[in-house]
Amino acid sequence: MPEELTSKIVEVTKASNTSEVDSITETGDVMWLPSYIEVMGSIDAEFQEASSTLQQEGSQYQLFKDAGVTSSGDNSVLVMHSGSQASPWWLRSADTSGDGTWFYVNAAGHAAGKAPSDSSYLLVPCFCI
User: Fold this and answer.
1) Cα 118 from Cα 104, distance rounded (Å)
2) Beta carbons within 8 Å of 106's beta carbon, 6+ residues apart
3) Distances (CA, A) of 9 to 16, 44, 59
4) How far is 58 from 12, CA to CA, in rounded Å?
5) Distance CA 17, CA 100 (A)
6) DSSP class per residue in 6-18
7) Is the alpha carbon torsion for 18, 19, 23, 24 positive or negative?
8) Of the candidates 18, 8, 111, which has an alpha carbon nearest to the alpha carbon of residue 64?
9) Which tens digits make up the pLDDT trace of 44-102?
10) Which spans in the chain are helix H?
C-alpha cells in the first residue's frame, strides 16, 4: 500500500471469539479480517448455537448494511475473485464448538459454513483511517 495511505491507518480494538462459547478476546489491530457479524449483521438460523458469541464480535459495518448484505442468502457485493474465478474468503470468527473450524464467505457471497483452518481461502483485510 502507498505510504500516503498507510500513514493514515489507525489502531482499533477488535473483539474476537476464541472458539469457546462466550469467550471473547479484545486486541488492538491495524489490520484484521472482518467478523461474521461485522459482515452479515445477523446470525443465520443454521448457526444459532454460536449466536451469543458471534454477536459479541461487533456490529455490521455501515458499508455492508448500505449494500443490503444479510445472512439469509447470497450477496453479490461479497463475491471476491482469485483471477477470474469467484472464491471463498475467511472471516475472523472461529466456530464455538472448539473443533478448529472458522466461518467463511462462500464464492456466491453467503456466510455458508465453517471450514478447517488449513483450507485455502482468500483473505480480505480491513483497516481504519
Assistant:
1) 12
2) 88, 112, 113
3) 20, 32, 20
4) 12
5) 12
6) HTT-B-EEEEEE-
7) positive
8) 111
9) 888 877 788 889 999 999 999 999 999 988 999 999 999 999 999 999 999 887 788 99
10) 3-6, 36-40, 51-54, 62-66
